[in-house]
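Structure ticket #2291
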Amino acid sequence: MSGTAPKSAVVRDTVRNFLASAQDDALAGLERAAPSIQSDKRGLVLAPINCPCCKQAVAVPTLDIVVDRYKVTPLEARILGAVWKGKGMPVMTERIFDAMYADDPDGGPSPTRMYAAFKVALCHLRARLAGSGITVENVGYRQGYRLIMGVH
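Resolution: structure written out below.
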């Protein structure tokens, strides 16, 4: 058996090469489908977005750049802004409601209608940001929502 690799090592290397090839193919497919996402060997990262003012590429966009680039509506921008302030940590739904209706002297509609409006606006926001590498994720039951930047 001198000079030959054990059968398990050959199988392991074959599987490793296959998985690496499949991952590269999947990343290439995502890059074609969503041009605002780029990949490196560690995973997917945000592609630079051009600043609306100076037209320079920005690797890590600000909230204003994202709102302008993806034409986010004012209500969606308030939701995104509330979650953006959390910097990746969970933000309670009540805090998002406060941001949604900050300029309403009555504090907004009833809690049931407020939650329904939030869910619809969140759905539209997620659709606008699809393929951008930016999303708002539900953290869990009664824990709130958090901002995810870049797909890993």
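Closing remark: The chain has a mean pLDDT of 77.
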